[in-house]
Amino acid sequence: MSNAAALPAGRAASRFRRPSALPGFRLTFGITLTYLTLIVLLPLAVLLLRAASVGPAGLWDLITDSRNLAALKTSFGLSLAAAAIDAVFGLLIAWVLTRYRFPGRRIIDALVDLPFALPTAVAGIALASLYAPNGWLGEPLMSLGIKIAYTPLGILVALVFVGLPFCVRTVQPLVAEIDKSSEEAAAILGASRFRAVVTVILPPLIPAMLTGFALAFARAVGEYGSVIFVAGNLPYVSEIAPLLIVIKLEEFNYAGATAIAAVMLLMSFAALLVINLVQDFSRRRFGHV
């Protein structure tokens, strides 16, 4: 009985430590766990413990505060909208940059990565100057009755700007790998251009689009520098949750700051979990990894 019980455990251990040409599995695995614990898990655990120290009633009061709820709604709602916009236009940009050859293509391809390298404060100042009521784009838009700077719409523009590279770069390699013969076969069989896009082109790209969506959403939720310059930061209107955390800290309201941060952490984790589940389903459904 004991041998039978030990056999599955031995097999499980052998599967865990598969033979490898590279030595040092135990050392590297230990370093990995230690690094993740110190850099990721420990700070998050301290944050949750600090937020729980105020007690369930106090934590609930902080979470349900009207100003806190308005800031969380602004941050997560606009982040989801910005990630969705980036997913659509990121696919279009990736398709154009991969499938077509035109003058200046390399320059445009390099500009896609500009939000990665540009300091967020610089991006915020540039967007605020551009979309301000007297800016190059803000003034003609104001004449049409559209105000962007210092409104939630300005936050959306800033979040779209910082998240776009994620959606482009995750989709671009898969666009390059799509076999053009599949599109030609669909056309020969009488499929319309729209049907060929839906049945041939989009299915292998959906997992990558969801990955870009998740990355853009995660970046947008925590974005601070590029938003505060163009948002207006009006409570209940255009105040984001990261800014509210900074305000709480400046007021020495550490309980309120940690409560908002804990809620953002849990909501971000839940949203990313749902996105990853949908992404995993799409991979199994369409047969693409």
From TrEMBL:
PROSITE patterns: ABC_TM1 (PS50928)
InterPro entries membership: CysT_permease (IPR011865), MetI-like (IPR000515), MetI-like_sf (IPR035906), Sulph_transpt2 (IPR005667)
GO cellular component: plasma membrane
Bilayer topology: Multi-pass membrane protein
Subcellular location: Cell membrane
Keywords: Membrane, Sulfate transport, Transmembrane, Transmembrane helix, Transport
Superkingdom of source: Bacteria
Domain ABC transmembrane type-1: from-to ranges: 72-275
Sequence intervals crossing the membrane: 25-49, 76-98, 110-132, 144-168, 196-218, 254-278
CDD domains the UniProt entry points to: TM_PBP2
GO molecular function, one term: ABC-type sulfate transporter activity
Pfam families reported in the protein's UniProt record: BPD_transp_1 (PF00528)
Described function: Part of the ABC transporter complex (TC 3.A.1.6.1) involved in sulfate/thiosulfate import.
UniProt family annotation: Belongs to the binding-protein-dependent transport system permease family. CysTW subfamily.
Subunit-level organization: The complex is composed of two ATP-binding proteins (CysA), two transmembrane proteins (CysT and CysW) and a solute-binding protein (CysP).
Protein name: Sulfate transport system permease protein CysT
Source organism of this protein record: Methylobacterium terricola
